[in-house]
Amino acid sequence: MPQRKVRIKIEHRIEYPDPLRVAAGERVNVGREDAEFPGWKWCKASDGREGWVPAELLSNEGAETTVLQDYSARELAVRPGEEVIVEESRHEWLLVRNALGERGWIPVRPGEEVIVEESRHEWLLVRNALGERGWILASSIEPL
Length: 144
Prior knowledge:
By secondary structure, this protein is mostly beta strands. Among the domains are: about 5-15 and about 75-105; about 20-70, SH3 type barrels (Roll). Helices cover about 0% and strands about 45% of the residues. It is built from no helices and 13 strands. Strands 1-8-9-10 form a four-stranded antiparallel beta sheet, with no helix packed on it. Strand 3 (about 25-35) and strand 4 form a beta hairpin.
């Protein structure tokens, strides 16, 4: 995904101050899937830190699995008017970098308009105003 600069509209505060950080190949214990943001699994690393991990970064569906790439569940506190660079988009969250070089995840806020490009069973491929594309559950959006 090409990196894009965006301006924050809504403040985001950090919910988990000591998040999970793992390297590719590390084992984690896998818990529940996030009901609000499907596609994220609650995981616990060997150092005891916990956090949400995108399901596609886990090697399988078992209770203990291997992480496929380096990953940090760190959130980034942002304020309206702040400009950030979007580095990645996964399951309604954006990995962004601020002017100080700090990186972290922020949620895509409800109410964002998207264009449906494709439909497969209960999944939709959508594109937002930034041109970012991804699959979401059809039940997570409503027609305008």
